[in-house]
Write a structure and sequence with these properties.
Blueprint lengths: L34 H11 L14 H21 L4 H13 L3 H14 L4 H13 L3 H14 L4 H13 L3 H12 L5 H13 L3 H14 L3 H14 L2 H15 L6 H13 L3 H14 L6 H14 L3 H21 L4 H14 L2 H13 L7 H21 L3 H14 L8 H13 L3 H14 L3 H13 L3 H14 L4 H13 L3 H12 L7 H14 L3 H14 L3 H14 L2 H20 L5 H23 L5 H5 L4 E8 L5 E8 L1 H23 L1
Helix pairs in contact: 1-26, 2-3, 3-4, 3-5, 4-5, 5-6, 6-7, 7-8, 8-9, 9-10, 10-11, 11-12, 11-13, 13-14, 13-15, 14-15, 16-17, 17-18, 17-19, 18-19, 19-20, 20-21, 21-22, 21-23, 23-24, 25-26, 25-27, 26-27, 27-28, 28-29, 29-30, 29-31, 30-31
Length: 675
């Protein structure tokens, strides 16, 4: 099972100059408040949601007024943000609910005029026509969709399914033929094959497979074709397919799975001599590194059908002696133990394999060093999997997990993979309660981020969202500075449609005094509000963020948001504020690296501003070009007395200020001379 990657725990400590009051008494408070309590209080205090006033329509005139008002609201919404396809879809759905199918169709057409590549619009448009039994109109929609977006598979699937649902198999076949001209992925071709097989057209399916092998000459393609021919009961055709596969793939691209399947087919046909010849041909041409599975299958084949037993025993005995020498030389070489156990498993001797695992488990490290235990734990994991899957001994596999957990010194360190594998083992045995008990014990003994993530993944698989919420609450309590945990918790609530919960979590997260990656958290919060279309809330978040940081990327992102939401004047105002702020920061620093950094950030801001002005209709790039600085070469003295050349930026407003300062000093000198 793949291990989830870790996250950086180190966050930047706030400076004393930034106005932070350091807490001298770091002892735990007498009354502890958990994150779960804060979330519950925030949910209780947010008040009851305001429900829309229900209007009772009494006659046709009132209905007409209501429909006119709602249409005006929708029109205003799509006029403000034409690129928001969600607003268009809601508009069309409302028109359909009013029984105005023609108006809904008009809304869809207008939406496609705005964005002709919107997949959601095409899907909803076609569903509208099909729902109202406008088959020809639905065909027209799908024709347009596959013409504009021929690489989007769902349109082709839906189009063919609609035709098949109507009993028009020829039309469905024609759709697939049009699709195949684009040479799509193998799944599309296999769907075409399934269509032909559903209607008993084996010859047509065979032709499709031949074309698929020409477009995608991969081992999986030939294997699927051979399975099809075998299902049809034609052994000669199966042999012909495997022969073509071997000829087409050649030795360079040959895969051992083709030979294994070919030999397995001959074995099922009770042709052991043919199968033995295939194994011999393959083993003579494929390198040993690419033929491990082939060799294993060959050994099993010979065991079943006789012959080569002495050779196999000699090979296994020689390799067994090599592994014995390795483990005697170093009893803590756990890779050698695992290879030894795998050899015995492949040989089919379960007793020997179990003995090797027991000997490897007895050679545990004598020092509580996690680096030494890391490979040792895999001995127990593979041992448990061997007992469960190979031997089918569930009780013994459970005892293996229990023994491993008792042996690991959890007081010094632990292994999340061991707890999680044990929990998933219990889930496979349909003992979910025991799995939860073990994971709860793990979190109580040695809480780790991997344990939290694994436990949460388990509950998500079981669709126990209340338990997932409680686990996330414990997780953020354990790792309050981890922005990744807060973001995952909020994304869960967003996926469940709990937008208020999601917003409350983000507010609680940004209020934490120390965060490891605050930029990730703020970006996720802003993206959440933008996804909901809350421009005012997004604008407020940018304002709060700009009070905490003056990073140029934040200014640029805020300006681009204003460009989308309010237009070029609002974006221009943000760029001007950012430029003035960075100018003030640069002037507040003594000449040095920090001042150079602020100047560079200001240049980056002006470059982004100029790009926006150039790409936006009605923009004024010359206005920004006039503010661009000159790049000059200067010298400065280092601590050791040497001189260093560096490049600096001189802005037009800085030059003007320098001239005024020079004139003021000259005027002051003249007055002194006069007096």
């Amino acid at each position: 099972m793949a291990e989830p990657g870790g996250y950086n725990q180190g966050g930047r400590a706030p400076k004393a100059s930034e106005g932070w009051n350091w807490i001298k008494n770091k002892n735990a408070a007498a009354v502890q408040i958990t994150a779960e309590q804060l979330i519950r209080e925030a949910y209780e205090r947010q008040g009851s949601a305001q429900t829309a006033v229900r209007q009772k329509v009494l006659d046709g005139e009132e209905l007409g007024d209501y429909q006119m008002r709602r249409r005006r609201e929708f029109e205003e919404g799509v006029r403000r943000n034409r690129s928001n396809m969600g607003e268009w879809l809601r508009y069309a759905a409302w028109e359909e609910a009013q029984g105005a199918v023609a108006r809904a169709r008009s809304v869809f057409e207008r939406a496609l005029d705005v964005d002709a590549r919107s997949q959601a619009v095409y899907v909803k448009y076609a569903e509208l026509e099909m729902k109202h039994e406008n088959v020809n109109l639905a065909r027209n929609v799908y024709d347009r969709a596959v013409s504009v977006l021929p690489r989007v598979s769902q349109f082709w699937y839906r189009y063919a399914y609609m035709e098949e649902l109507l009993g028009n198999v020829d039309a469905a076949r024609a759709v697939f033929e049009r699709w195949m001209q684009w040479e799509p992925s193998r799944d599309a071709w296999l769907a075409y094959v399934k269509l032909e097989r559903r209607y008993g057209e084996a010859a047509r399916a065979r032709q499709v497979f031949a074309r698929l092998a020409h477009v995608h000459p991969e081992p999986d393609t030939w294997l699927r074709w051979a399975q099809f021919e075998e299902a049809e009961g034609d052994a000669d055709r199966v042999r012909a397919v495997f022969g073509q596969a071997i000829d087409r793939l050649g030795e360079q691209f040959m895969d051992q799975r083709v030979f294994v399947a070919f030999a397995g087919f001959e074995t099922r046909m009770r042709e052991p001599e043919r199968a033995r010849a295939i194994y011999a041909y393959a083993l003579a041409r494929l390198p040993r590194a690419k033929a491990q599975a082939l060799y294993s299958q060959y050994v099993r084949f010979e065991k079943q059908h006789g012959g080569a037993r002495e050779i196999e025993q000699a090979v296994v005995g020689r390799r067994r002696a090599q592994h014995e020498a390795r483990v005697r030389a170093d009893a803590h070489d756990y890779d050698a133990w695992l290879e030894y156990a795998r050899l015995e498993e492949e040989a089919g001797d379960r007793a020997r394999a179990r003995d090797v695992y027991e000997r490897a488990a007895a050679a545990h490290p004598r020092v509580a060093d996690k680096a030494l235990w890391r490979r040792y734990v895999y001995v127990w994991l593979f041992y448990a999997l061997f007992e469960e899957r190979t031997c089918g001994n569930v009780a013994r596999a459970r005892r293996v997990y229990e023994a491993a957990l008792e042996l690991v010194p959890h007081a010094q360190f632990t292994f999340a993979k061991l707890w999680l594998q044990y929990a998933w083992f219990e889930v496979r045995q349909r003992n979910v309660a025991q799995a939860r008990r073990r994971l709860g014990q793990a979190l109580g003994v040695c809480p780790k981020r991997k344990l939290f993530r694994g436990y949460i993944a388990l509950e998500l698989e079981l669709r126990e969202f209340d338990r997932v919420r409680r686990l996330y609450a414990k997780h953020v309590e354990f790792s309050a500075a981890s922005c990744a945990v807060w973001v995952e918790f909020a994304q869960l609530e967003q996926a469940l449609g709990e937008h208020e919960r999601c917003r409350a979590l983000f507010e609680l997260a940004v209020a934490q005094p120390v965060l490891d990656m605050p930029e990730v958290l703020w970006k996720a919060y802003i993206d959440f509000e933008q996804a909901l279309g809350n421009d005012d809330a997004t604008r407020a978040l940018y304002a709060r963020l700009l009070q905490l940081t003056d990073h140029v990327k934040v200014w640029v992102s805020c300006a681009r948001f204003e460009l989308r939401a309010s237009g070029l004047p609002a974006a221009r105002a943000v760029f001007e504020r950012g430029s003035q702020r960075l100018r003030a920061l640069a002037h507040g620093q003594e000449p040095g690296q920090e001042r150079e950094q602020h100047n560079q950030e200001r240049v980056a801001l002006l470059d982004a501003w100029r790009e926006v002005e150039e790409q936006t209709q009605g923009g004024e790039p010359a206005r920004v070009v006039a503010q661009m600085p000159r790049r000059v070469r200067r010298r400065r003295e280092l601590d050791d007395g040497s001189l260093e050349e560096y490049f600096d930026y001189v802005f037009p407003d800085d030059e003007q200020g320098a001239r005024f300062k020079l004139l003021a000093k000259a005027h002051q000198w003249k007055q002194g001379q006069t007096e």
